[in-house]
């Protein structure tokens, strides 16, 4: 996953596929997401703290609906995730 460019028309940061795995550094800050415990469930968070001198945006990943299509996007409304044993 990676953070897409800001969509100025929709006023939204979208999450998309195609991130680079395992390459720490300021060039890959758009690829860093975390899974955090959240009220008995989990949430996805974009907060790439891989670089001490980089200024980054830390915010939850939520759902943005546009034209009936659901997208992962940065949001103030958390999208809870539950993991089940298979």
Automatic annotation (TrEMBL):
Signal peptide: none
InterPro entries in UniProt: Kunitz_inhibitor_STI-like_sf, Prot_inh_Kunz-lg
SUPFAM superfamilies per record: STI-like
A single MF term (Gene Ontology): endopeptidase inhibitor activity
Pfam families to which the protein is assigned, alphabetical: Kunitz_legume
Chain coiled-coil ranges: none
Domain of life: Eukaryota
Alphabetized PANTHER family for the sequence: KUNITZ TRYPSIN INHIBITOR 2, KUNITZ TRYPSIN INHIBITOR 5
Protein name (record): Uncharacterized protein
